[in-house]
Automatic annotation (TrEMBL):
InterPro entries: CtaG/Cox11_dom_sf, Cyt_c_oxidase_assmbl_CtaG. The keyword Cell inner membrane applies. This is Cytochrome c oxidase assembly protein CtaG. It comes from Brevundimonas diminuta (Pseudomonas diminuta). Residues 26-191 are periplasmic. Residues 1-24 form the signal peptide. Keywords: Cell inner membrane, Cell membrane, Copper, Membrane, Signal, Signal-anchor, Transmembrane, Transmembrane helix. One of its GO terms (biological process) is respiratory chain complex IV assembly. NCBIfam families: PRK05089.1. It is a single-pass type II membrane protein. Exerts its effect at some terminal stage of cytochrome c oxidase synthesis, probably by being involved in the insertion of the copper B into subunit I. It is found in: Cell inner membrane. SUPFAM superfamilies: Ctag/Cox11 (SSF110111). One of its GO terms (cellular component) is plasma membrane.
Amino acid sequence: MKNKNSVALLCAALVIFMTGAAFAAVPLYRLFCQVTGFDGTTMKAEAAPTEILDQEVLIRFDTNVRDLPMTFKAEQFSQKVRIGETGMAYFEVTNTSNQTIHATAAYNVVPERAGPYFQKLQCFCFEGQEIAPGATVSFPMQYFVAPEMATDAEVKGVREITLSYTFFPTKGFQQAVANDSAVGKAGERGL
């Protein structure tokens, strides 16, 4: 009987551990990508480089929206910056609904091998956003391409980088939409 209790306790502990690991996997992977630049994830920088090279890189901006009633666009399609130079881009979001939107922007860089060198000093993607009904908001993003890219043989010839953003709903927005939909349907039925 003692062995059966030990096995049951071990199985329960394993299930709890695996459940915890499943919930921790996504945040840990995101943190790993942000720290290493893995999979085209850009890195957050504390300061701009002091060295500016005489080599230009064309930065293209791509914007996407997933499951949100909003428009999202870059105010400029592309920018040319010198390696090491600080660039500033602006993005415009319009909430096309009559509800407050809670959203977060995820991002990546193509080609992926340029991810560690494309670094952001300031970005709206570092935290969730709340956008009022019908509001249009302009978000700045300050960035640079690290000078080390010029000496890395794997990315030495890269002269174009695409920064892609996707806004997706946060949990609060999904709950609000579900609640408003339920209230609206109940009102339509005269309940």
